[in-house]
Amino acid sequence: MKTSVLLSESSPKSKNPLRGVEGRSEKPQQHRYERRKVRQFLRETDWLSEAGA
Question: What is the largest CA-CA distance in the chain?
């Protein structure tokens, strides 16, 4: 029977298979979301101004 230390050593590492994913922050995703919302808002205001004219 293996001890818990040997079991933990034999188990695969909990490292993400994609390189660089762990070092990536959430900030770029947040900026992308904010830019998308701003573009959507600008399109809607353009559409409203065209509909009103």
Answer: 81
Task: Provide the H-helix boundaries in 1-53.
Answer: 4-10, 27-52
Instruction: Give the tokens for residue 42.
Output: 């600008």
Determine the Cα–Cα distance for residues 53 and 39; give it in Å rounded to an integer: 21
CA-wise closest residue to 43 among 19, 13, 35: 35
Residue 41 confidence (pLDDT): 94
Q: What is the pLDDT of residues 3-51, one digit of tens each?
A: 666 666 666 666 666 776 666 667 777 788 899 999 999 999 988 888 8
Query: What are the structure tokens assigned to 2, written together?
Result: 């293996």
Q: Please state, in angstroms and rounded to a whole number, the distance separating the CA atoms of residues 10 and 7.
A: 5
